[in-house]
C-alpha cells in the first residue's frame, strides 16, 4: 500500500524500466521535438507496451512532442524508445516539411514587367 504523497506510476523507477536504464540512445541526436515519426510496420506480440503504443499511434506522422504528450512520458524517455524503434526498422523519422518561403518581390516584379512588354 502506498502512502498518500507517493507517486508510483510516474516515478523514476518507471522511467528506468521503460528505457532499460538508458538516458540516451544512438539515434537520439537526429530526433528533436518537431521530428515527424511514422510507423513502417505493425506491432508484434511481445513488444513492450510503450513501443506498441508508438507504432499504433504513428500510422500517420506525429511529432516527437505529440508522441510524448499522448504517452504522458518525458521527451527524453520517448527519444530512447524511438531510437529503439528506429534501429529495429519499426518507424521512420524525418524532418518536417519546411514552410514555403515567401517569393522574392523584386523577382516577381521583374517577371511581371517582362510579361507586360510582350
TrEMBL record:
Top-level taxon of the source organism: Bacteria
Start and end residues of each stretch annotated as Disordered: 1-23
UniProt xrefs under InterPro entries: DUF742
Comp. bias (Acidic residues): 1-10
Stated name of the protein: DUF742 domain-containing protein
Organism: Peterkaempfera bronchialis
Biological classification of the source: Bacteria, Bacillati, Actinomycetota, Actinomycetes, Kitasatosporales
